[in-house]
Write a structure and sequence with these properties.
alpha+beta; five-stranded mixed sheet; 45% strand
């Protein structure tokens, strides 16, 4: 009889405690699912349209948007160093539209062209181009030059020329 009462009280206690823990798990599950949705959204935002790798640095274009009212285009991309920490200098930034018109970057509305890259960490940059003559659907060439300096040896420089071709513009 003592065993029966002991087992009954143990079973009752475990059922009562299990139900209170269930509410905590449900709230925790809601928090985790919202965090998971946020991370999925972040991954879809940073999906590259085009990518290129030069001198152990990865360049990924994520967005090309045009502003009809401002007659401007903004190109957003991610840069990440694959081998070591670097200081990067980006210069001679230009685009050529499908009609052959060349536009230089508006450095006042663009990101700072001197990013400091950490190993395997993406850095977001956006470059703006203004005073467009028309509203092209494609950018024929987006090009720029880079000079990379490693943090361990500032006298060691590597230069690269990058070109991305046939970028579709999303106008708004």
């Amino acid at each position: 009889m003592k065993k029966f009462l002991f087992l009954t009280s143990l079973l009752t206690a475990s059922i009562l405690f299990a139900q209170t823990e269930c509410d905590k798990i449900k709230t925790e599950n809601k928090i985790l699912s919202s965090e998971n949705d946020y991370l999925k959204k972040a991954l879809s935002i940073n999906t590259p349209l085009l990518q290129s790798e030069k001198e152990n640095t990865l360049y990924q274009i994520t967005k090309v948007t045009g502003n009809k009212a401002g007659k401007s285009i903004e190109i957003t991309f991610l840069i990440s160093a694959k081998d070591e920490n670097k200081n990067l200098i980006i210069e001679d930034i230009s685009i050529i539209d499908i009609e052959g018109n060349e536009y230089k970057a508006d450095l006042y509305k663009s990101s700072r062209p001197f990013p400091e890259l950490s190993l395997n960490t993406s850095r977001k940059l956006a470059f703006s181009f203004k005073d467009l003559k028309s509203e092209p659907l494609f950018i024929k060439i987006f090009r720029f030059k880079t000079t990379a300096q490693t943090e361990r040896n500032i006298f060691e420089k590597t230069k690269s020329n990058l070109e991305f071709k046939d970028l579709k513009i999303s106008w708004n």
